[in-house]
Specification:
The protein is mainly α. The chain folds into two domains: 217 residues, 3-Layer(aba) Sandwich (Rossmann fold), CATH 3.40.50; 73 residues, Tyrosyl-Transfer RNA Synthetase, CATH 1.10.240. Helix content is 55%, strand content 7%. The protein contains 14 helices and five strands. The strands form two sheets. Strands 1-2-3 form a three-stranded parallel beta sheet. It has a two-stranded parallel ribbon with strand order 4-5. Strand 4, helix 8 and strand 5 form a beta-alpha-beta unit. The longest helix has 29 residues. The protein starts with a strand and ends with a helix. The structure holds adenosine-5'-diphosphate (ADP) and tryptophan (TRP). Tryptophan binds next to strand 1 and helix 7. Adenosine-5'-diphosphate binds next to helix 1.
Length: 326
């Protein structure tokens, strides 16, 4: 079984990225041949600062390795180190109906957001992005694609495009399945909405302790007094986040105390910060080691690229032959 996923280097990684995508990806390393990549081509649809892209790409490599991606088990690489994927994007684009892309929520949302201020930023790459993503997935004969809920539609587009190509040119591609983790399909951010870089409501995985403590202590709660029982304790944002980062019995205890009354929001947030900081202690230590050894990180990405490219070139050749370009 081949497992594949990617993540864009568009900013510091946060708990939504971690629980929605990275952790499932890391756990899946045990279950098959895993390929994980940093989607730097994709980041060009929104980020236009070359230096920032270079930095973010390296930071994602550090973060992912620190969080437990094991280069001995997985193939870890930079998307752009396998340029074959851009050629496959073209082949796929010729069997991709416009209507399929026009229906993509992610495109519609980004377009709506940009429409007010800068329509020129609604570029063709933003529109064609799911085709590049389909090429990413299909070029490695991937079976399983672990992603957060927001990427499910893009994996469905990939399936449609693979089927269309297979029907047009004969059996060429493996049709992949998305894998969405139900319980953390949508990690809430500081404001209770979906945690996302674009909403400015993130809790980063790594960063300055003081800044992060302040973010967590600044979560706005309602005005009920500590003594009041809170029958809706399970809906409380700090409880929801605590369930992700605390041992199960600790989270259950805090939830019960909040429900019964007597637990103040300040104490709850303090506990949340403490558990979150502990949860990533080991990863922080590993990250510091990697920061001190950048050459090691570059070598890991290079080895990953070589392995990924060997797979990709075989599949691209198969696709070229199928459509009479050989
Ligand atoms: P952002 O919304 O911060 O820009 P991305 O769109 O780059 O994040 O998402 C990268 C990966 O992390 C995707 O697989 C996505 O599904 C997952 N992800 C992002 N935010 C969340 C969240 N709040 N909950 C669960 N998964 C998430
Ligand atoms: N589009 C994904 C995101 O923004 C990243 C990505 C690119 C991806 N190519 C992929 C994810 C292929 C899974 C498979 O999060």
């Amino acid at each position: 079984m081949r497992i594949l996923s990617g993540i864009q280097p568009s900013g510091a990684l946060h708990l939504g990225n971690y629980f929605g995508m990275m952790l499932p990806a890391i756990e899946l390393q045990q279950r098959g041949e895993a390929l994980y990549f940093i989607a730097d081509y994709h980041s060009m649809t929104s980020l236009t600062d070359a230096g920032q892209r270079r930095k973010n790409t390296f930071d994602v490599a550090l973060d992912f390795l620190a969080c437990g991606l094991d280069p001995a088990r997985s193939i870890f690489f930079k998307q752009s180190d396998v340029p074959e994927v851009t050629e496959l994007t073209w082949l796929l684009s010729t069997v991709t109906p416009m209507g399929l892309l026009e229906r993509c929520h992610s495109y519609k949302d980004k377009k709506a957001k940009l429409a007010g201020d800068d329509l020129d930023r609604v570029n063709h790459g933003l529109f064609a992005y799911p085709v590049l993503m389909a090429a990413d997935i299909l070029i490695y004969d991937s079976n399983i694609v672990p992603v957060g809920q927001d990427q499910k539609q893009h994996v469905e587009v990939t399936r449609d495009v693979a089927i269309k190509f297979n029907n047009t040119y004969g059996e060429t591609f493996v049709v992949p399945e998305p894998q969405i983790r139900g319980e953390v399909a949508k990690v809430p951010g500081l404001d209770g909405e979906k945690m996302s870089k674009s909403y400015g409501n993130t809790i980063e995985i790594f960063g300055d302790e003081k800044v992060l403590r302040k973010k967590i202590m600044g979560i706005v709660m309602d005005s009920r007094t500590p003594a009041e029982p809170k029958p809706d304790a399970d809906k409380n944002l700090a409880i929801q986040l605590l369930k992700l980062v605390a041992p199960a019995d600790v989270a259950a205890d805090y939830e019960a105390r909040l429900r019964a009354g007597g637990l103040g929001y300040g104490d709850l947030k303090k506990k949340l910060f403490e558990c979150y900081w502990d949860y990533f202690a080991e990863a922080r230590r590993r990250r510091a080691e990697l920061v001190a050894n950048p050459e090691q990180v570059r070598a890991i990405l290079q080895q990953g690229a070589d392995k990924a490219r060997a797979i990709a070139s075989v599949v691209l050749k198969r696709a070229r032959r199928a459509c009479g370009i050989d």
